[in-house]
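Ticket #4471: structure output looks truncated?

Reporter: J.K.
Steps to reproduce: submitted the chain below (376 residues) through the standard prediction queue, then opened the result file.
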Amino acid sequence: MAAESLPQSHRALVLRSRDQPLAVEVRPVPQLTSGSAIVRNLNVPLVSYSRDVWTGKRGLPFPTPMVPGGTSVARVVAVGPDATTLKPGQLVYVHNFIAGRDNPDELCLFGFTSGFTPGVQSMVEKEWRDATLAEYSKVPLENCIPLDETRLLGSPEDGGLGYTLDDLGYFAFPLVAYGGLRDIDLKAGETIIIAPATGQFGGAAVQTALAMGAGTIIAMGRNTQALKRVESLDPTRIKTLQMIGDFEKELEALKAFGPIDAFFDISPREALNSSHYKSCISALRRNGRASLMGGLGDLTIPVFAVVFGNLQLKGRWMWDREYIAGFMRLVNSGMFKLGPKGGNEITGKFGLEEWDAAFDVAAEKARLGQVSLMIP
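Returned output as attached by the reporter:
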């Protein structure tokens, strides 16, 4: 697609302070600098807790005023003078996990939080406080992942996968899950527990584990109807088990599945006292692995099971950069399926002025495969 010219101004959703509502403002278009690109945001997916983040309820640090946001599917409009490959006109996935260039251990989530150390907080305040809930955004060059537009959006008759731009907005959820599953080296044919498995991120982990070739996926959750929906993705490979809050009974039921190679957890903070954490780790075979990606807070580890089972517990915040290429290979190959054929549903599309309704829908419709999109 031909490159487009930048206007002088654009519309952006602005958070002036945590105790004031968001408002759409007309602002000058961001200025291009070395190491950056200007993109036109086509869609921005919302997580279920979007309102809690930007009202301060989650307690995450971020500067104000700011333009909130996160990931986006976007079109590159301009690139900095140090760009070597990225070109105007390209379709890209903008991911929001920003690392300091002089210290990659300084990390933040663009549009969500300025991170947890003085160094990265200073970087965000000075350079990256305005994210993607705007018509145009300045983003780091390295956070623009080129998309194979012909393959992804082309018709199946011409060798494409037939997806829409809105389908691509779902990337935000399985890419997170892929970070944890890749981190514990999930292999084809292995048995893995995913718990909880019915929400946006847990459900995306089930989809991702299927694409990676897991032989058996034990999907756990409290809602039996939601578990049936998860099982419908692949009734042969997906087995379900209800969380009942009883460690001994859950452990007995898990062991009935035979040797279990891995456990993936992405529990919300509300699950702090859930019994599944202990039962799932205790059910792993010797030399089993666990990926812990949830925000549970401080937990009691079943040390006996870990030590005498020679288990590996790995924490993971998001992903490493090289993981993104691996995930995109799954998508481009057709192994990871987007859109209705993958069990996904666009629950709503909203303009910037409709942010309040968008946040409500995002919170209410946050099961497996569901995503609400802002369309700047």
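Triage note (M.O.): checked the attachment and the full token line is present. The radius of gyration is 21 Å.
Status: closed, working as intended.
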